[in-house]
Amino acid sequence: MSQTHFDLILKNATVLVPNFEGSGLHEEQLDLAISDGRIAKIAHQLNDSSTQVLNLKGLHILPGVIDSQVHFREPGMTHKEDLETGTRAAALGGVTTVFEMPNTNPPTTSQNSFENKVQCAKNRCHTHYAFYIGASSENADQLARLELLPHCSGVKIFMGSSTGNLLVDNDVILEKILRSGKRRVIVHSEDELRLRERRHIAESSGDVHMHPVWRDAESALISTKRLLHLARKTGRKVHVLHVSSGDEMNFLVGQKDFATVEVLPQHLTLYAPDCYDRLKNYAQQNPPIREKAHLDRIWKAIQDGTADVIGSDHAPHTREEKERPYPQSPSGMPGVQTLVPIMLNHVNSGRLSLSRFTEMVTENPRRIFGVKNKGRISLGYDADFTVVDLKKERTIENKWIASRCGWTPYDGMKVTGWPTHTILMGKTIMENDQIIAPHCGQGVDFAVITP
After folding, report:
1. May I ask the CATH class of domain 5-61+377-389+416-435?
2. To 10 degrees, the CA torsion angle through 366, 367, 368, 371?
3. Which CATH superfamily is domain 64-369 in?
4. Catalytic residue list contains 445
5. Domain segments of the chain: what residues?
6. Of 31, 216, 308, 313, which is the active-site residue?
């Protein structure tokens, strides 16, 4: 039998591949052959020739991890982060693709601002990238056109105020936005009126422990109920970001025909009051980290299928900013670099299976956002891989963090499970905590209409 020559062969690993019936993933001992940046051959044992062979015995190959919610702060806030430092952190953490948020300065709400961001990303990013268009009252009638721009991951709505000045708290405008376009809309769901009415709780206390009291579970639930009412009215499917409360999960169980659901590692790992005792303002984010009962309900949503996606909501701020008196301190924490280690640690503790974790950061984002050619290990797909050592024990430390902010809420946390290689289009860009092939990221392409 004649041999075929490939650019790269990955041998002797356990690979996460789609089930034959088309739903979910399973583990299988396989070799993968790569040509021209794509998966060219999958077999139990390859004896073909190759320019490069990586023996990954004892390791697992996942489809390249997609982090579908990051804030890289460029333009306008690059003292916290930029596209280069943010994607460097992502690559070191085993993430191959990021979808970046529009609450920059100026906000990403026009074709010009969007194309400027895409231009800034070229030849600077260490991972693949796409960007959201921010929805506003000013651009509501343009979104059907803007959502089709190359490398646009979708439309983002802020129903509650957070970092930046993108806010849509008017149901008339919200309905107009939902009627403009066809792709799934991404939503930060907190009720702005209730947040304003209750802000005195935060201001009078000056205590970050009151953050989940001010921005309470009811604020999220009211907003999400409004959102789903309008989604059904307009026929527009939505993706509810960073669901933080059991109350919302109980409601969303019955809304899966119109809503997909994102959860965050921090809402699965940290809980009040412990996180505020230890981390003070560094634990402050929107929506807040809540009591353990909410954490437990979010875990149940992963197990019963209500939750679809795990994103990091990477939202860095400087130490100086985070140490301002509460509530003048900004909300948000870095997370793109720690997403994979934190969740692998949960896999090792038995909270979820490796296949379920992988599905939530690859297959489901691929399906929900209509990502072309990424998010699964199958013939013809892009050769983007996250290689992990499930047995590797490490301690997460601030000094490992590549984000410009230089800190992580998980500093000092011991984990089991670590990314060893990040591979883009068949090229190893990160190996054993070192970026060895910088600036290899490319813009992500999407189907015209996502399901």
Report:
1. mainly beta
2. 40
3. Metal-dependent hydrolases (3.20.20.140)
4. no
5. 5-61+377-389+416-435, 64-369
6. 313
Other Cβ atoms less than 10 A from the Cβ of 251: the count is 18
| Segment 383-441, tens digit of pLDDT | 999 999 999 999 999 999 999 999 999 999 999 999 999 999 999 999 999 999 999 99
Measured over the CA atoms of residue 202, residue 205, residue 210 and residue 216, the dihedral's sign is negative
Alpha helices of 350-427 — where are they, by DSSP H? Answer: 354-358, 364-369
pTM of the model: 0.97
In this structure, what are the phi and psi dihedrals at residue 234, rounded to the nearest 5 degrees? -95, -10
The Cα 52–Cα 277 span in angstroms is: 50
DSSP string, 391-413: EEEEE--GGG--STT---TTTT-
List the structure tokens of 61: 């190959």
- The residue behind tokens 């062969």 is 9
As given in the structure block, the two tokens for residue 117 are 């961001």
Give the H/E segment covering residue 40: strand 38-43
